[in-house]
Write a structure and sequence with these properties.
This protein is an alpha/beta fold. The protein is built from 15 helices and 22 strands. Strands 16-17-18-15-14-19-20 form a seven-stranded mixed beta sheet, sandwiched between helices. Strands 11-10-9-12-13-21 form a six-stranded mixed beta sheet, with helices on both faces. Helix 9 links the parallel strand 14 and strand 15. Helix 2 runs antiparallel to helix 4, helix 2 crosses helix 6 and helix 9 crosses helix 10. The longest helix has 25 residues.
Length: about 475
């Protein structure tokens, strides 16, 4: 196996990053581009030995990093952000090649957001404090103590951005990190290791290990030296992680996707509602927050559907490196099989494909809208994670809320209405970690992020991130004269 591969002109190391050094494995796995199926390269395939080495490196580096001042930690995080900004073009093209998301989005939004993630948590760290308070004359002082080595397991749909949502606050909090990227899109995590080292992050503070699921994941999540585990992905994998972490009572943060609704009321601005609806095809539908279930008031359903079809069919699907492309490929042949299986089973059960409903050449799936779907059907209840949307109608507000909440999930919801009072009533009753009213995907890092029900456990963002990645301590001090036992 070559130590480095060239991806669109960018050199990427295929080995693990453990304790400040590149570490090879005897085994490898292949990484293919979803754009054209071409082999990108062979990647080091870690197992229990690499997992233990990474956790040991993180444990050894923890005391010194935890003792590092807030100001110095923040300085290094800003230096990492500087490094990201210098390499935005390289990061963008490597990630597009690796996971198929739009290059224009990576250049203009995603990679700048990666840098912002580090800057935000560096700055938030410097202002993190809780106002002291008194109890019967005794002072109470709350502090955030670094917890220890953290295992961060990240998904393939927005690899670097979602990784740094976790890495940045964990490092800011004074923890050390073992990052395990998804095997379908591992490359930018390797580049992040290079950037962090160049920024002066001490050896062992950030470790990156690559490998397949349980081959390396179980060894990471069951390790007693790991003090926090953060995972974004599927419910079945989360239950396995929870079982693995349970003997050590390792705290978990789990973001597990959803089956989110878009509620369109008759009083909504239909142009806006349609724009919000078409936006759900972003990243070829591979967005955990996507509002994949359209719930439209019956009186405007026909007009909404026609406007949606007109706009959706004008989208350009193709090579994500082309500036004119709106929708790229799906990540992997296995994912494409899963998507098509959902759609074909739905059609066989009576659903009607208003648009799409079929594969295209390569790893591309036609943007799809299905109607005539039952509320208890698989296509309405289960996460597809592809460019597949459903449309149902409702008669009144009560039915809209009932349908919106009638799944096992509760990650997000989007609401289109022209009535502020209705918006307040409806959002109060929706089961969701985030609700957008007349907008979508507005994400501020100071806000809590997470899901309800099977969409996850815990919240991250702003102070909530530090609450998770730290052990909170309250110090109670007696009033003056505290040495006087009389």
């Amino acid at each position: 196996m070559a130590d480095k591969i060239i991806v669109a002109g960018v050199a990427v190391d295929t080995r693990h990053w453990i304790g400040g050094e590149r570490v090879a494995s005897d085994a490898t796995f292949t990484d293919h581009s979803p754009i054209d199926g071409e082999l990108i390269g062979d990647i080091a395939r870690g197992g229990p030995a690499e997992a233990q080495a990474a956790v040991s490196a993180a444990r050894a580096a923890f005391p010194a990093w935890a003792a590092t001042s807030r100001a110095e930690r923040a300085r290094i995080l800003h230096a990492i952000a500087d490094g990201v900004e210098k390499r935005i073009e390289e990061l963008a093209i490597v990630e597009t090649t690796d996971n198929g998301a739009l290059l224009r989005s990576h250049r203009r939004g995603v990679m700048p957001r990666v840098a912002h993630n580090f800057r935000f948590f560096a700055d938030w760290l410097l202002t993190l404090e809780h106002e002291d308070f008194e109890t019967r004359g005794h002072s109470n002082h709350v502090s955030w103590d670094p917890a220890g080595p953290c295992v961060l397991i990240t998904p393939w749909n927005a690899p670097l951005m979602l990784a740094t949502w976790k890495v940045a606050p964990a490092l800011a909090a004074g923890n050390t990190v073992v990052l395990k990227p998804a095997e379908w899109s591992p490359l930018t995590a390797s580049l992040l290791a290079d950037i962090a080292a160049e920024a002066g992050l001490p050896a062992g503070v950030l470790n990156v290990v690559q490998g397949y699921g349980s081959e390396i994941g179980d060894a990471l999540t069951s390790n007693p030296d790991v003090r926090r585990i953060s995972f974004t992905g599927s419910v079945p994998t989360a239950t396995r992680i929870a079982a693995s972490a349970a003997p050590n009572l390792t705290p978990l943060s789990l973001e597990l996707g959803g089956k989110s609704p878009l509620l369109v009321f008759a009083d909504a601005d239909l142009d806006l509602a349609v724009d919000l609806a078409v936006e759900q095809y972003d990243n070829a539908g591979q967005v955990c927050l996507a509002a994949t279930r359209f719930l439209v008031e019956a009186s405007v359903a026909e007009e909404f559907t026609q406007r949606f079809v007109d706009k959706a069919t004008a989208l350009r699907q193709g090579d994500p490196r082309d500036e004119a492309t709106d929708i790229g490929p799906n990540i992997h042949p296995n994912q494409l099989e899963k998507i098509d299986g959902f759609v074909q089973r739905a059609i066989a059960s009576g659903a009607r494909a208003v648009i799409g409903g079929h594969r295209k050449d390569g790893q591309y799936y036609a943007p799809t809208l299905l109607t005539d779907v039952a509320q208890d059907s698989e296509i309405v209840q289960e996460e597809v994670f592809g460019p597949v949307l459903t449309l149902q109608t409702f008669r009144d507000e009560e039915e809209a809320i009932r349908l919106a909440n009638d799944t096992r999930f509760g990650l997000a919801a989007t609401l289109a209405t022209g009535d502020p009072e209705r918006a307040e009533r409806v959002t109060a009753q929706l089961v969701a970690g985030t609700v957008w009213v007349n907008c979508f995907f507005v994400r501020d890092l100071q806000a809590p992020f997470g899901g309800s029900r099977l969409s996850g456990v815990g919240r991250e963002g702003g102070t909530w991130s530090f609450d998770f990645y730290c052990d909170l301590k309250n110090t109670v001090t007696a009033p003056k004269g505290w040495n006087d036992h009389g």
